[in-house]
Structures
1.
Amino acid sequence: MTNRKSTLPVGGGEDTLTMVVNRASPGGAKLIEVTPVSQIYRESVYLLQAYNRMLRSHARDYLVIFIGILTQVAFYIQFPLVIKYILDKVIPHQDFTKLGVAAVEIVVLLGIGWAGSCVQTRRMARVGGRVLSKLRADMVAKLNALPLSFYSNVQQVDLLTRFSSDGERVENSMTRALPFLVESTLVTLGCLITIAFIDWHLALVATVLLPVGFLSNIVLGPREAVTNSESRRLKNSMLASVEVFLDSWLMIRAFGERKHFRSRFDRDNEQYTDASADFSYYVNIMPVFSEYAVNGSLAMIVMVGAIIAMEGGITTGAFVGSFALLRKVADGSAKTARYFSAFHNAIRPLKRIQALLAEPEIGIDSPRAVPISSLSREIAFENVSAGYAPGQEVVKNLNVVLKAGSSVAFVGPSGSGKSTILKLLMRIIEPQSGVIKVDGIDFREAQMDAIRSRSGIVLQDSHVFQGTVAENLRMGKPEATNEEIMAAAVRAQCHDWIVQLPKGYDQPIDEKGTVLSGGQRQRIAVARAFVHGSMILMLDEPTSMLDPITEDSVNAAIREAGKGRTVIMCTHRLALSRNFDRIVVVEKGSIVEQGSHDELIAANGLYRRLWEKQHGFVSNSEGFTITPERLRAIPIFASLGLDTLEDLASEFVTETYEPGMTIIKQGASGDRFYVAVRGLVDVLIATANGGERKVAELGSGDHFGEVALLRAVPRTATVRASAHTTCLSLARARFLRLVNTHPGLLAALEKAMEARK
């Protein structure tokens, strides 16, 4: 037996719906508190006010809808009266003339009602489509203006729900439930008034039908609302599991992780199934409950009417007509309750949509924003600190000047804040303190589009969107000619393989670029920046997915494209920055050195240590090799002679990993030692709840797993590639074979390992 307590805010106030879901109980839930009637009233008024604001531009359509509603009301009230007239006036007197008149009245009523219903339904569909279209457009515009921190704290599937089920429930409430609620209310009241003219005793008794239809909403409505919210939350979790699989299916299949992800999905799917069953039960039982309650009440009222008729209080025609009207009152009571439920159930979806639309935006141009036509002098950081959450600074007190027309590289260890600096320049995030100036103009006082339209950008993830290759290359410059995009593709070393695609530059690709390799996506991103031809070229690890030969040619193309432009690059690979005019070294969010390559090498500081760590790897047709001198820089091999190191270096083999691939699995038996030639890896340890916690990030030149050379012990952590990563690995079996020819190797390694403890 499992219990789960769920407390959900309703309408943004203090009132809550609270329940305990008991899976073993027949009903699936026990209600502890219900929503106060006063709160339901406030929420209904809130919805009406919100809909009034949305529908102001559709007043004419809603007037037509209201007229259509009145035709339905007229039909449902008048039709029983015609039946009464036939029974009381036509049949007793066998008057065929009056029967003809009655027939004409019936045809006219049917025609007017049918026409009104068609017009009403058509207008409601049109209004609903337009209102929902505007809501979606407003949400997309909002998403385009939200800060990076927003996306860090929200699931993608939750955002998609605002566009799908939330929007649909609001549309259903506004354009279907609300008009039908008005119609059923007017029909019910009109029928009661008509019955009163026939016999006030019968009308008085019939009023008991009005609250009966709402019994199911009163008794079961709160439970339905809570299970609905719980089902929605668990559905999002289940869809998130599917999304993880769709994003990572190649890695899952390659590393045999299907069982793990299947068990994760099964858990989420089972929880959603249970919650969905609870919600489905209440949704389906409510109308059944209401229907039987209404029909039971109607039967009693008919009995009362029959007694009145038998005592001569009303005629047979009046009794039959009243019964037809009573049937509409009963039906109206049930429909009013059902439509009110559909109307009121939009409160949470609407509030979720409005919460998104109310999110604070970033980088909104002020009415006095200054246009920037060019970068003529410099971009200056003055005491700039920034991060992704209040009080959490990723970069601190940055003071640096980027001269127009120069090339500047921000380098440093992984996690030092390089990419954050680039995000500040792109105005994806804003400074928490300090100021960034462009030619003396505060960034915040400049027009955002003026800055971005003059910036060509290559991001680390090399994103492509759904469309053709040509459309991806034209992003940022849709008017670019075929000749321009082909010339850019040639410079970015991607023209040759593009023309070999089945449709060449018109080849469709999806938003994940699954038909392209990581290197191909990266070259498209570089070519896209070349097509843009902007005054500022911003690059974030622009060649991390490329092989060494292609990397050299693309770097040469970047240098050529950068002539006469301001080039700003963030990279952890120092070889890319060697020929830049200035190199800014960042560590733990602060600038620690800056100068040219030669100046920084001579300074013998952090830059030189990083440079030495990243060098000593030689590329060849089979991958990479490590030099004996570079191998000696690894502490466990520091005491070995060059001859031994040369033999040891020959035993290393090249291994390549795509982002998300696991290099070492925690708990698995260790059998090899790794040196990262290039790329990034995360070091993760398992947590008590079955997740993983990141404890370190390693990059080019770092090494890991050395204990595996001595003994086959379980790995103490998982190491997973976070970028395209190339490693040199030394298997323990190869190492032990080498020990036979170098007897002192094992003793030296054991001594070095002991010294590290």
2.
Amino acid sequence: MQTEELDVLIIGAGLAGLTLARQLLLSRPEIRILMVDRQAEIPSPKQKVGEATVQVSGYYYSRVLEMEEHLLREHFLKYNLRFYWKTQRGGDVWEDLSQSYIRKISNIATYQLDRNKFEGAVLEKNRESPGFELIHPVTGLKVDLAEGDGDGPHAFRFEAAGRVISGRATWVVDASGRNRFLVRRRQLDRPSPIAHGSSFLWVEGLLDPEKCTHLDRKAIRLRPERSALGHFPTFLATNHYCGEGYWFWEIPLHGKTSLGLVFDSANVAFRDVSTPEKLVEWICREYPLFARDLPQRKILHHSGFNSFALDNGQTISPSRWAVVGEACRFTDPLYSPGGDLISTYNTLITDCILTPGRKELEAKIRLYEPLARAIYEAYVPSFAVSYCTLGDQECFSLRYVWELTVYFAFYVFPFINDLHVDQAFLPGFLRRFSRLGPINHGIHRLLAAFYRWKKENVVLAAPAPVFFDFTEVGALAAAELTFYQVGVSLEEARAVLDEQLENLRDLARWTMAHVTASVLDDPRAVTNAAYMRDIDVNDLQFDPEKMALRLAAACRETSETYSWRFAVPCMARFRAGRLAPVEMEASSS
């Protein structure tokens, strides 16, 4: 029998486990890590889903893990997220679609990952360290966790290649994906309020949406709409095609294109899209522009989930075990949060593993555990409450501006400053972040109700394409500037978050005011100072009758104009041809 004495046993050789090992080896090269996996081939020969990164995961994979050169050589740079809606012109060609987007590319590089290729590259880097070993396939894995107040090591045992291997490890990390090795054995599973499914496939070659068109090559280049849309290759974006309770992605990889439908089970039945043939038929029916190209493509691989959301009751234990990746939690892929949770949780777990003393470890976990829970739960209302808003460009754009402003200020800014593992920073951060909780829930309730109202009272499809750059809302542009505040002191970091918290509170007021102006067809709702002062951002409610009474009373009280903290865009573009034309937000039209 072979015996092992380890610092860390990592269960699972997927993205979460491999990147955790890489971070640990960079931080402490002499650390002893054994990684085990039940799969015969690592990476899996089957194509892996979850290719898009955003700012936290892009920064983590490239800068923290020092994989930047590989990413730039072997993967596409990502051109933000782009969202599309059908118009009254239909959806036969790309230029028929309305779009919401960010025209400028992110200063923090993000990437479209070929998961298999990236995981292989990280594994190769890990194997350069003498203290790292991967054994696979393994069977009969057993782990006996040392519990209580002691620091005794955990015992493990498994079989591989006809040998029995056993040993002890100071830390055990479950990165086993949906197998959820520790979560199942410790009965930590929690139900998720998110009831969404997905069906996805990969096709051979690059599917470029701009070529799904009637236009000739010159006309594609010289479209007057370029003044709004820009010239950067559209296919590099994570392109989202949206409808009520669903969206599907289009992501470029070298030599192939990833396509996937994600849906609320109340809006789409998994059985209707459960095969590659059914999925292609659904895509081409809902967005006919793809019928020009997609049916002729060779399908390389297909998979799906009837339900995919996951939660669990614990991330890191003072008894020196932890859970990360899909073994831990997963919400919905709309904003690619899975990689962000891996990046943040791995960073917390790495810091704990490198902490020798029990008391210091317990003190850290008292902060890290609520942080891990909070950054997950802040995503949940977006997917459990307001998923219907995907059916309308205006509602969704309001929602995404809010969510991205929170993300830039309270997720990206702390992460790029290593503040999530700063013991002096975290108590104040958690207090500030908690203040966003009721506002966040209220925003999602408000916009879901606004969507339902619009669905009953107006024609949702615009007569012609509408273009909206999210950064026209100055609150989001202000949050993006935090990318450039790096190496800050604790006092400076706290000041940044205080400023961004006020920025978000005013953004919530503007969102409520804009909804009021749209429903009541009264532009005074976005200018009247008394109405603004009367908005309780901790209790946002969609009640047209009360909104009308409050606005009328405010206008009787004063004609004073409210001074917004940020540039306010003209939103009248979303009502042309649907409501009586008005100049909403006339001061900035």
3.
Amino acid sequence: MKRRSAQILRRPDWSVIRGLYKSMGYSDYDLDRPLIGVANSWNRVVPGHYNLNQVSEYVKQGIFQAGGAPVEFGFIAACDGIANGHEGMKYILPSRDLIANDLEVMVEAHRLDAVVMLGSCDKIVPGMLMAAARMDLPALIVVGGPMEGGCQFDNRASDITSLTEGLGMLKSGKIDEATFNRLEDCAGPTCGSCSFLGTANTMCCVAEAMGMLLPGSGTIPATHADRLRAAQLSGRMIVKLVEEGITARRIINDKGIENAARVSAAIGGSTNVALHLPAVAYEADCEVTMDSFEEWFRTTPHIAKMNPAAPANVPDFHQAGGIPAVMKEILPLLHGDALTVSGETVAVNVADARINDSGIIRTVADPWAAEGGLAILRGNLAPDTAITKPAAIVPELRTFTGEARCFDSEEDADKAILEGGIQEGQVVVIRYEGPKGGPGMREMYKAMKLLYGQGLALKTALITDGRFSGTNNGCFVGHISPEAAEGGPLAIVKDGDRITIDIPNRSLQLHVPDDEIKDRLAQWKKPEPKIKKGYLALYARLAESADKGAIIRHKFD
């Protein structure tokens, strides 16, 4: 493959650029090699990224070993957990597009030959995938790995979300303050992406299934030595991809995206997959719709179960065989000929994989459920679709009818829950939290966890034009499109209206006559934007709806 960097490093015309590199200690020996970007999102804010400086050193070792020259730079990464439940969450989904843009700017401005991207968490991995597809250069991803499970709490290994569940228990008198404080010290015992199958670990698994991580590397725990060996091998592999001219779109294409979606369904991944894969598909010029996802989710069995659907966490899943074992089991449903960053096909990669723990990963012949762990709903409340996660919903709650209790913000809903204002049988409606209305499409994680802590998770439901954390359970529907701020039917629901969630039949229905719905919509007035300056104001103007991945469209005829 022709090296882009060589074009701007030739003597004497481009000696000024050589001089700039040499001012940092690079040698002629370095500058005669492929320049490989090492995009490192390390910081001391995000636990999932805390170990990435050490991981990066091993990536750079591998690049040197294979004959490349690493050029390291940083990019932003925000923590969903720290941002959750307040105004900061408005920035999390919009950060995905900033990350993709940031990576594009750094790699293209400096004419790097390839890039290894290091990240672990919710919007960082999707942003990296988007950038890779957009630039279509040799690229691969290295993640920091999941943290270990914490101390025992509520009959399972705790995780960071146990603290929000514990808060509900504390407020309702089920546990005392000393117990709650002890939980704070032991729920997150190591660095790494949170130990449950939330969006962070889901997207690491999805990226591996797509072929953008080395096989088996998406779930190696953050503190294990294998994490460093995988990083070093990734460094060697990126140089091979450059030599063989294998660019990102050879991997991020229709085959890779379908494989990723089916694997997400098979493991009961986060609902946020339905936001991120359409965004990646957009960057890769692939035609993917919500109907595509519905077909893949319906026809893929749910064979791996972990927290929040079961006690096992992601490190347990890794020991059980991880993504290679899942992919081997559902291989007839996958594109086995799809290329991956290993240089081999999916079928070759998983040939020797096996299931080590049938209590976590089952066979296709004996799945946890015949259909995948995610579902697309439609109805008069969601004309352009909504999404839910039956893998995290007990069977008896997959059909739920109740009276609406409406809130125009997450904060108002959280306050009502904590004050005991939600009753059994109600459907909590949280609106004006979509991509434009939020703006930023916040997660309703806290509201769901507070309901759980107060013993209402199995007695109520929650619907929203916002989204959910991958760790939520109960009965919930998100991504309702069109969103309330765009005049979607969610905007005109009133307290006391009856709503039916029917997951088996993929329906979300408001029991109000059509004529009355039309009258209410005719009287509805678009609210003033919540934020009128800065990046969020710009995002609110540009973002597409949730059913289109909340993308910022940048392709024009």
